[in-house]
Design brief:
- Keywords: Transferase.
- The chain is of the alpha+beta class.
- Helices cover 26% and strands 23% of the residues.
- The protein is built from ten helices and 16 strands.
């Protein structure tokens, strides 16, 4: 797949940011270090458009400019180790995809192909010299079939996936004719004091979202429909350790158990006899008082469930350990936004990261030409299980990143396939 860059521009907010809002401190839980953050690019795929590409381009730029007035830290830069909301602007890139129809990408859901739609592929010199301090990079990929893929890369120290989802939804609402955006909370220092980090914040470029190095990890999509999720919760929830669990706890425990069951005990990674499930927790509705879902920031922390690699798999026990790890962290954060030393003891563990953004409004992002036909993450070079919404809003699409050999075992495991089905290509309506 060949990507031709058509233009690179800087989009500034339509209204200047007041001087007293210039210095933005990251709202970062204290148990999470800056070195723990890696960007998770998001791609929105839209069906073929009848509108002229120039009109679409102008429409997106104008609406983005208006949106940045509300989400002004996105238009700032990293300067001298802090976020300077100086209205420098977001980076807006437009490309033409040559030789590939978007339907192939949507049908295959191939993470390696998705990587090619990330900003400025291979052009690291231009990034480092010109755009290295930006907090937001947007790339609009035009396909010859008329389809559009919008890629979002953001500074993960500044915001998390929840903020990114609401930002794109807000951008789409303004593009669709909304006069403004309600309920965006940028500064919540009156409720919680922003974390005063010992280290300077780092830029999006330093987080290296443009890492195209070869990796042994592959990402695959598996669908859990609503009925299978209910059956899985009943199966895993029937046991002595835990009798009521969320859908996230059920799916995370199930994926962990299948990974343990199929683990090659002879490999170096599994000599520790333990898997550490590192679970991302959205703190907005966990703290006291709770924060609105539109609160801007990286409002996540992590819980660690340490799972023994036993010969016999007890999913109820695994679910209970996941539940206990999350509850322990949430209880500590209810009255204290800064808790130290929660992430420890991973040195001798096989690690898999879990996150749940399946209730985020990704599929509500209608720019005036319909909702996306697919929203996907682009995988990082870590083992992970991320729960995404399905386009119908009922099921869950699990994006699982493991080694090729491990993924193959998932695809051949009868128990796993009785609840989850690999994504099967259907001819996308483009």
């Amino acid at each position: 797949m060949e990507i031709k860059i058509l233009s690179i521009e800087i989009i500034k907010p339509s209204s200047p940011t007041p001087a007293h809002l210039r210095n933005h401190k990251p709202f970062l839980p204290s148990d999470v270090g800056f070195g723990d953050f890696m960007p998770a690019p998001i791609i929105y795929f839209y069906s073929a458009q009848s509108k002229d590409a120039m009109k679409i381009s102008s429409h997106l730029k104008m609406s983005l400019s208006k949106t940045l007035t509300y989400y002004y830290p996105f238009a700032g830069q990293v300067k001298d180790g802090v976020f300077d909301c100086n209205d420098h602007g977001a980076i807006f890139i437009e490309t033409q995809v040559v030789g590939d129809q978007m339907s192939k990408l949507v049908q295959k859901r191939d993470n390696n192909l998705f990587k090619q739609l990330l900003p400025l592929k291979g052009n690291t010199q231009e990034i480092s010299t010109t755009y290295s301090k930006a907090n937001l990079v947007v790339q609009i990929n035009y396909f010859s079939c008329g389809g559009i893929a919008i890629t979002i890369c953001y500074n993960h120290i500044l915001v998390d996936g929840t903020t990114a989802a609401y930002f794109v939804k807000s951008w789409a609402e303004i593009a669709h004719g909304a006069n403004g955006i309600k309920d965006v909370v940028v500064d919540c220092s009156s409720i919680y004091t922003p974390y005063d980090a010992h280290a300077s914040v780092i830029s999006l470029y330093e987080q290296n979202p443009w890492d195209y190095s070869p990796t042994e990890l592959v990402g695959k999509h598996f669908i859990f429909d609503g009925g299978k999720i209910a059956a899985l919760r009943e199966k895993i929830g029937s046991g002595p350790y835990l009798n009521h669990l969320t859908r996230f706890e059920a799916i995370a425990a199930f994926i962990s158990g299948v990974l343990i069951k199929n683990a090659d005990r002879g490999t170096h990674e599994f000599t520790s006899k333990q898997i550490a499930a590192v679970i991302a927790i959205n703190l907005r509705n966990k703290v006291n008082p709770p924060l609105p879902p539109q609160t801007l920031g990286c409002l996540v922390t992590t819980a660690i469930a340490k799972l023994p690699i036993n010969e016999e798999i007890d999913y109820n026990y695994i679910a209970a350990e996941v539940h206990k790890a999350v509850k322990n962290v949430v209880d500590q954060y209810k009255n204290n936004m800064h808790v130290d030393g929660l992430v420890k003891g991973l040195e001798n563990s096989a690690v898999i990261h879990f996150s749940d953004i399946s209730r985020m409004p990704f599929y509500e992002a209608d720019f005036g030409w319909g909702k996306p036909i697919l929203v996907s993450l682009v995988s990082l070079n870590v083992k992970a299980g991320c729960l995404l919404p399905t386009s119908d809003g009922v099921g869950v699409e699990a994006f699982i990143v493991l080694t090729k050999e491990e993924i193959a075992k998932f695809e051949q495991d009868p128990e796993f396939l009785s609840y989850a089905k690999p994504f099967v290509s259907k001819r996308a309506k483009l």
